[in-house]
Design brief:
Shape: globular
Largest sheet: 7 strands, parallel
CATH topology of the largest domain: Rossmann fold
Strand content: 5-15%
Amino acid sequence: MPGARPRAARPGAARQGAALVSALAGAPFLAGALALRPAWRIGLPERLGRRPELSPGSVWVHAASVGEALAALPLLDRLQAGGRRVVASTTSVAGRDLLRRLRPAIPCHLAPLDHPWCVARALARVRPAALVLLETELWPCWIRAAHARGIPVALVSGRLSERAFARYRRAAPLFRPALARLAAVGARSALDRERFLALGADPARARVTGDLKAAAAPPVPLAPDLERALAGALLFAAGSTHAGEEEAALLALAAAEARGAAPVLALAPRQLARAAAVESAARAAGRRVRRRSALGSEPLRPGEVLVLDSLGELAALYGRAALAFVGGTLAPVGGHNLFEPAAAGCPVLFGPHTANALPAAALLEACGAGRRVADPGELARAAAELLCDPAGARARGEAGRRAALAEAGGAERAAALVESLLGGAAAPVGA
């Protein structure tokens, strides 16, 4: 109509338009992610944001995979003990299935893909009071969407290796806004905190809360059939191994036998899909092999190899072992959870690549519970030495247990950080 004023755009419509543009811009990422990571196609409806609708007010805790899911257990337990309702998510199917088995009462699904439509759908169905991300789970779209809805986002047990720090710095335009939106950062160490600050985290919102992996939940006892199979055995456990590390552990087994020890070797690959390849490597080394999934009733004999093709039993196996090797450390991966065997009272060997576990490696080396080896040959010598000295190995293991116990306040500090964001009373658990 001539002379009429143009109608102002409604704020809601503007937001919807911006969301549509963002979603369309992110569509190539979504397609690329599914193409490059076929494993993400498993559980695709969950990854697209589909999950049961929940009553609002839960604390949503997200962990990447199995190791992080185990580390999240004490935090989940403490939040529940404080009267909070909790939900969980993981990036990997294995992590999700583990949490469902260990905490069946906690709703747990795969995390949404980091795309506006996926995260919006998931947030609308969960309606959390807070979102808690573990370690390096910095998903810019998810953080932005939660922030836009007034949901505080916390990062706990936050860590950045030197390599990850350099990578994030190169992608600063993407990650700096995400870090600035975090309501709280609970860093694993002072060095990690400084790295998060350098990337854009608010100094007033960042503190050191410690490593949740030092506060891992007490391991469940070994299953009765596995306990019977290991009865009387001198056990050497190689956990979270990658390609090439199983062969190194097999060399260590032979070196221990050459010095008069008679251990059983347990190989626990980081990825269960590698179990067949691990079994083949052990057979190629002339070993009798049994899979955990086909254990049988006979006890394992000295020199035999157990392939742990199950989830959630490694911590208990460490509790039964005389010596552990933690993988991802001879292979250039950065290392996995060194606190897990230490907390079980087991001395620990690890290779030179510990960028993902620096505080734990330094602590265990300092107290004598951990020993760094340069290569497979040094691993073989160190393993033979400790397996032939049970009393010395036990003393080192006890030193590690005490050191891990002294570091075990991370879950309480992380829970306190989350509670500080929530303010008022906890939502009724039965709501």
